[in-house]
Fold this protein.
Amino acid sequence: MKMLVRRREVAALFTIACMISVAVLALFSGSCGRKGAKLSPEEICYMNQRSIDGAIKAYKEEKGEYPKSLEDLKKVPYLAGTMGSCPEGGKYIWIPGDPPQVKCSKHGIPK
Ligand SMILES: [Zn+2]
C-alpha cells in the first residue's frame, strides 16, 4: 500500500516538474518572440550602423588608419560582405572624421 502511495507522489511530482519546464519554455520563447517583434525599423537600422562602426574600428586596428569611405570598408571582410541596409530604404552616408561615422539618410545617427 505504502509503495503505491509513494509511486503516486512521484508521478505527481513528475507532472509538476513537466508543467514547470513547459511553462519556462513558453516564457522563454514568448519573451524571445516579443523581443524580435519589438525591434522597429529604426532600431534595426541603428543595429546596422553599430556593426559598421565596429568594422570601422577593426579596420583601424588592422591597418593603423581609418577607412576613407564606405567603399574602403566594403573591401575588407569585417562586415563579411553582409553590410546591412536600412530596412526603410535610407542610405548610409559616410561622415569623414576621427573616427568616421555613418549616418542613415532617413534615421540619422543612433541615439
Ligand atoms: Zn535607416
